[in-house]
Design goal:
34% of the residues lie in helices and 16% in strands. The protein has 447 residues and is α/β, with parallel strands linked by helices. The chain folds into two domains: 261 residues, Rossmann fold (3-Layer(aba) Sandwich), CATH 3.40.50.450; 142 residues, Phosphofructokinase domain (Rossmann fold). Strand 12, helix 8 and strand 13 form a beta-alpha-beta unit.
């Protein structure tokens, strides 16, 4: 199943979020706009598409996120757990803080546990003691990068996790993580259902690559793009500091090139952007090396290249397939590979070039969230807290057209979101970099 399948045949998919049961407790939050039964948001905005789906009676919509008049869990008896998994990402601490503050101040929940080092924290053999969370503990954590709870990769035994939740009387679990974490959260929710337990499992999607489906822009992405500015500026400065200087920057993006694409638009000194969605070659009329020759042939004395970590993997002749603890295939280092190939190519032509290579990945992902990204973290956290208190489960919080919504976890993890190379975003990148001309796809224009 793919994202395309969901849009083409929405009648075959369930857009409704699972519920633990009827909400019968008055919400302690007063003076607010409640989400009413049936409040939903449309996830497609093309008029022709909506007209066609209306004829078929299958317009795809998601439930709006927010506080409900009646809630499922009794705040006085509630015990919540928060866990962060996978790689670091700007905004993790902001989300933790937002969940704690909403549960504590809005609902009066007084038992909130921070699970240490990802899903390992649920498994007794690791011996990770939980962190007791309250507003004092989380007061200033948004100023720090990373996560105060720690994180880890790799799956753990779902049955054992649910046993721990049941043993500790946890009735709300908040999972902050990416594709792998959310799949684990789905498995946990399904095991909970099999055992007829009443535990809400709500995810806050974390993917710095912005590659999860149906959740809108993910937190940390905007900060990551912002953080690329100093690196790309440095690469440009280094490139201009030498005759035929080349600044080569590798950015995050294992399967999706959103960070690279947005970074090139935000820092318009880049001359070539290489992403996983668009295979490229080194040699030949449309090759990267030929493109550099064309640029230098125009009298330009420098070039800046941005490459996503998952781009060009087919070019590296290494049959050793390695995976991380979460089962993700570890990408081969396209940055070092390109640096070597560029230097070898021009050395063979007896043409001097200077290549300066930048790999800021760990620096970028460990910074605190900035500006509107931090606001997004807080709003997603509140949406997750409201959903859990209302007995929603096996879902994640997303945002569509400024409306926060609840997405079934099975849909959010159906397929990785990709850059559409025929859409306005990529066309803007091609225009800004002029790489269509340098790579021989468009007439070369001297300007």
């Amino acid at each position: 199943m793919t994202i395309k399948d969901v849009f083409e045949h929405p009648e075959n998919f369930n857009f409704n979020v699972d519920r633990l049961g009827e909400c019968m407790i008055d919400n302690p939050i007063q003076m607010t706009n409640y989400v009413e039964e049936g409040d939903r948001t449309i996830i497609a905005h093309d008029l022709k598409y909506l007209e066609e789906m209306h004829k078929r009676g299958a317009i795809p919509t998601f439930e709006k996120a927010g506080p409900h008049r009646k809630i499922y869990h009794d705040p006085v008896w509630s015990r919540a757990a928060i866990v962060t998994c996978g790689g670091l990402c700007p905004g993790l601490n902001d989300v933790i803080k937002g969940i704690v503050q909403c549960l504590w101040f809005d609902y009066g929940v007084r038992h909130i546990f921070g699970v240490r080092y990802g899903l390992e924290g649920f498994i007794p053999k690791y011996g990770h003691e939980p962190l007791i969370l309250d507003p004092e503990v989380v007061d200033a954590i948004h100023e720090e990068g990373g996560t105060i709870l720690g994180s880890s990769r790799g799956g753990q035994d779902t049955v054992e996790i649910v046993r721990t939740l049941s043993r500790l009387n946890i009735n709300m679990l908040f999972c902050i993580g990416g594709d792998g974490t959310l799949r684990a959260a789905r498995d946990i929710a399904e095991e909970i259902e099999r055992r007829h337990l009443k535990i809400s499992v709500v995810g806050v999607p974390k993917t710095i690559d912005n590659d999860l489906a149906f959740v809108g822009r993910s937190f940390g992405f905007e900060t990551a793009v912002y953080a690329t500015g100093t690196v790309i500026t440095a690469a440009h400065t280094e490139a201009k500091g030498a005759h035929n200087g080349i600044g080569l920057v590798k950015l995050m993006g294992r399967d999706s090139g959103f960070i690279a694409a947005y970074a090139c638009l935000a820092n318009s000194v880049v001359n070539m952007c290489l992403i996983p969605e668009l295979p490229f070659e080194l040699e030949g009329e449309h090759g990267v090396l030929t493109a550099l020759e064309r640029r230098f042939g125009l009298g330009k004395d420098h070039a800046v290249i941005v490459v996503a970590e998952g781009a060009g993997q087919h070019l590296i002749k290494d049959t050793d397939v390695r995976k991380d603890a979460s089962g993700n295939v570890l990408k081969k280092d396209i940055g070092e590979f390109l640096k070597t190939k560029i230097e070898q190519h021009f050395a063979a032509k007896k043409q001097d070039v200077t290549v300066k290579y930048f790999d800021p990945s760990y620096t970028i992902r460990s910074v605190p969230a900035q500006g509107t990204d931090a606001i997004l973290c807080y709003m997603l956290a509140r949406g997750a807290a409201h959903a859990a208190m209302a007995g929603r489960t096996n879902c994640v919080v997303g945002k569509c057209a400024d409306v926060f919504m609840l997405v079934p976890t099975s849909l959010a993890t159906i397929e990785r979101q990709k850059v559409d190379v025929e859409d306005a975003l990529w066309q803007s990148v091609v225009d800004a970099t002029r790489q269509g001309e340098y790579m021989g796809y468009e007439p070369l224009v001297r300007r």
